[in-house]
Amino acid sequence: MSVIWERPEPGERRAVRLSREAVTAAAIALADAEGLEAVSLRRVAAALGTGPMRLYGYLDSKDDLLDLMMDAVCGEIPPPPPGDWRGELRAIARDTQRTARRHPWYVTLLGTRQPYGPNGLAYSERLFAAVARLGLPARLTVHAVDAVRAYIAGFLQLELLPGPEAEPGEEKLAYLARSVATGKYPTLAWIIAEFEAVGPEEAFAEGLERVLDGIAAARPDAP
């Protein structure tokens, strides 16, 4: 058994020439236009002007295709400029957010599969290299990177993949107002009264700083 990145591609002698890169690009274009649920080997083959069976020389399953798509998008996230560990993690997180906005379906893959392709491994290397500067044990380094990844994936899920109930209707808003007015939920009442909404970029940055504060507190020399 081998992963998709270790398998050779077939030679081509046909009028419609294919490659894994072309198959991946067609799948990404389809997902960008219609969402991840629209991606199938049949649809991708049609976009390339060929039949689905021809794709099986380049991948074994749709799972392979999703891995290729995820890795290609990871390759769009640039390396952070050299700096301190917090600056590098901020840059990685910010550029991940911007890349995900171009490919909202990527957020689904970000939360459901590991980035094991060459671009995904390079992305992981940058995260771990930044945190490793703190001199934490390997276990805490992994926990710190997992916390950053979880924050990024969770925030982007809320920002880019709203469900049908993401925006409450008038009836639910009225119910919320009546419920809070009973005094049973004093903390919610305080939040509703005092909360000042900001844009997604500012909210993303503020939340990330709290995660980074927690990582910084784990340093051996931290107070």
What keywords describe this structure?
single chain; 223 residues; mainly alpha; 11 helices
Number of strands: 0
Q: Give me the number of helical elements.
A: 11
Approximate shape? flat
Main sheet, how many strands, which sense, barrel? none
Which blocks of ≥5 consecutive residues have pLDDT under 50? none
Describe the structure.
This protein has 223 residues and is mainly alpha-helical. Helix content is 62%, strand content 0%. The protein has helices at residues 20-34, 41-47, 52-55, 62-74, 85-102, 106-110, 118-132, 138-160, 170-181, 186-194, 200-216.
Give a quick summary of the entry.
This protein is an all-alpha fold and 223 residues long. It has helices at 20-34, 41-47, 52-55, 62-74, 85-102, 106-110, 118-132, 138-160, 170-181, 186-194, 200-216.
